Amino acid sequence: MKHTRYVLLWFIGILLLSSLTISAQNQNAARISAAGEQFRLVRVAEDLDYPWSLSFLDSGRFLVSERTGRLLIIESDGRRQAVSGLPALRAGGQGGLLDIALHPDFRNNALVYFTYSAAGTGGTSTALARGRLVGHQLTDVRVLWTMPKRSSATVHFGSRIRFGPDGKLYLSTGDRGDQTRARNTGDAAGKVIRLNDDGSIPADNPFAGRQGYLGEIFSLGHRNAQGLAFRPGSDELWLTEHGPRGGDEVNLVLSGADYGWPLTTYGVAYSGARIAESPTAPGITPPLWHWTPSIAPSGLDFYVGDAFTSWKGQLLVGSLAGQKLLLLRLNGQMVTEEEIILNRTIGRIRDVRSGPDGFVYLLTDSAEGVLWRLEPAK
User: Fold this and answer.
1) 3-state DSSP assignment of residue 9
2) What is the number of domains present in the chain?
């Protein structure tokens, strides 16, 4: 009996030591020097199931969507609880529960906006809904907008959401794997959509009331945009989108502009066949930056904190295929330089956010996804 007790005490001691060691490793991660700053990576939460998007709640809490269909509230210590009340969605391929955004007056109205792949006759399409977050439940859930044309394809849902300084909601949609849809003015695929916060169409949209155009269209000719960010202190909407084989783009989104897909692209088809005769054409707004080979950009934000002074006001870009976190340095509306912050260090980066605490937060796209924090190395 005494021997059994000693073994049990020894086993508990080993567990405690292991726990302390893991904690110490987490808090004393290796110092990384990149893009003019020194920082360390800290795991905030792990074992996430293909996390897609991140928003910041109060008291250091996070709201995280998992593509497979869960919305989570994650505490600052990594504990999490699922939020109930989501509408039915179809997860599969690139579809599922996708982006999330808090209403600009969230502190008072508790409204959460989210995109997802909605099923119906003809397949699935990108949909936008909102609900009121009460505890760990969404109440008063309403579907605000659904792409009218559904498809059996399971790719290119787009789905980034941003509220602009004008109070309007901007939403990217993908071409759903059919490139002919992107410049079709009667189709919502391959567009940036602009809506009022209740889902209605603003009267000052560029095509509102114009015959042959959907009134919600703000810009067209996009392949699959998964990065949207407003430049602080301005009304500039920046966008990153996936090209085919090469030709990923950074675009400054202008009202009523045509970005050319598939008439213009720097990429080629996956077979190697040519798609466009030229990467430019009259009447087409060219990208400010492009990548060949493709990095598969997903997640975009301007850094607005004070923890990394040389990054302030610059553009952070995550990538899936490239497994990189990039810093794009800007001079006005020109991209002047690209610097690598992370390169195949943590895996596929799905979302990038500049946090209210001045740190940078990342989500990795994996069945064992992680919420990471970049903080200055001490």
Assistant:
1) helix
2) 1
Closest CA to 171 of 133, 210, 214: 214
Q: Which of 129, 161, 157 is nearest to 145 (CA)?
A: 129
CATH of the domain at 284: 2.120.10.30
The tens digit of pLDDT for each residue in 53-65 reads 999 999 899 999 9
| Residue 30 pLDDT level (bands cut at 50, 70, 90) | confident
* Global pTM value: 0.92
Q: Is 242 a catalytic residue?
A: no
Mean pLDDT over all residues of the chain?
93
197 with 235: CB under 8 angstroms? no
Does residue 24 belong to any structural domain of this protein? no
Sequence-distant (6+) residues with CB within 8 A of 44 are: 62, 74, 76, 78, 361, 370, 371, 372, 373
pLDDT at residue 378, as a whole number: 78
Catalytic residue among 156, 222, 242, 290: 156
